[in-house]
Design brief:
- The chain is built from 3 helices and 2 strands; from the N terminus they run ααββα.
- With 154 residues, it is mainly alpha-helical.
- α1 (2-59) runs antiparallel to α2.
């Protein structure tokens, strides 16, 4: 009976932990996505300003490279901030998945159980996993070649 109660308690603790992690993920993702949206609007405005500025310089036949470079640097700065926010969003997602016993494939971003040797989406080998597959692996069924060939003919 004590074992049953301990299992129930463990299940509840795990559920509370997952809920806490998901709540934190949602809060942080919302904040970052809001910041990313603001940056994207600023980037759109910067592109528009760059286009107008370039056109104005073209109209007066004075394509001043230094002034154009300054405007382009503003765009590059915003692009870097957007990339950084995207990295932060991905890091939060990875931490959340790890807390729930899952991992993210770096190739196709499929969600996989911890300990997966290969991605079920794209087949990429997961980092930290050995390449050798043995008959003892629980998640691998080895079929002898002749048997596999006869199954394909059916």
């Amino acid at each position: 009976m004590a074992d049953f109660i301990e299992k129930v308690k463990h299940g509840i603790d795990k559920g509370v932990n997952v809920a806490s992690v998901k709540t934190r993920e949602i809060r942080d993702m919302s904040r970052l996505k809001n910041q990313l949206g603001i940056l994207c609007e600023q980037l759109k405005t910067a592109y528009s300003n760059l286009g107008e500025f370039t056109y104005d310089l073209y109209r007066v036949k004075n394509l001043d490279q230094k002034k154009l470079a300054e405007k382009c640097q503003e765009v590059e700065k915003l692009l870097e901030q957007v990339r950084q926010k995207e990295v932060e969003i991905k890091e939060i997602r990875i931490k959340s998945l790890e807390a729930m016993g899952k991992q993210l494939c770096s190739g196709c971003e499929a969600i996989l159980p911890n300990g997966a040797k290969f991605c079920m989406g794209c087949g990429q080998k997961m980092p930290g996993q050995s390449e050798k597959i043995t008959e003892e692996d629980d998640d691998v069924i080895l079929i002898p070649f002749e048997e596999e060939d006869s199954k394909l003919k059916k």
